[in-house]
Design goal:
The chain contains 7 helices and no strands. It is mainly α.
C-alpha cells in the first residue's frame, strides 16, 4: 500500500513548526524531548504526515513562543508579513539578542 500523501494543512503546520524551531536554534531532538515524544514522531509532524492533537499543538506553540494560529498561517513572501513574523519570533529574546538578530 503506497504512503498516504500529506494533507495541505498538515504540511503548513509542519513547515511552520520546523521554521520556528530552527529560528530558535532548537534541534528536532530537543523539541521532541521537551514534548516527551519520539524524534521520529516529531519528524513526521514536521514533514506533514501527521497532525498532533490540539493540546499538543498548544504546547508546541508555547515552546516556540507563538500562537496556535501562527502555526497554521501560510507565509506569503511580502516584506510586511515577513517583518511581522520576525518581530514575533524575536520578541521573547533579551534585548541584546534582538539587536544581534536585527543587525544580521
Amino acid at each position: 500500500m503506497p504512503a498516504k500523501k500529506p494533507q495541505r494543512l498538515a504540511c503548513i503546520l509542519g513547515k511552520n513548526i520546523a521554521r520556528r524551531r530552527q529560528l530558535l536554534n532548537m534541534s528536532q531532538a530537543e523539541l521532541s524531548e521537551k514534548l516527551e515524544i519520539a524524534p521520529d514522531v516529531m519528524s513526521r509532524v514536521e514533514n506533514g504526515h501527521i497532525i498532533p492533537r490540539f493540546g499538543r499543538i498548544e504546547t508546541i506553540a508555547s515552546l516556540l513562543g507563538c500562537s496556535v494560529a501562527d502555526l497554521f498561517k501560510e507565509t506569503p513572501g511580502d516584506t510586511a508579513s515577513n517583518a511581522a513574523t520576525l518581530a514575533e519570533l524575536i520578541r521573547p529574546l533579551p534585548p541584546q539578542k534582538q539587536e544581534e538578530v536585527i543587525s544580521l
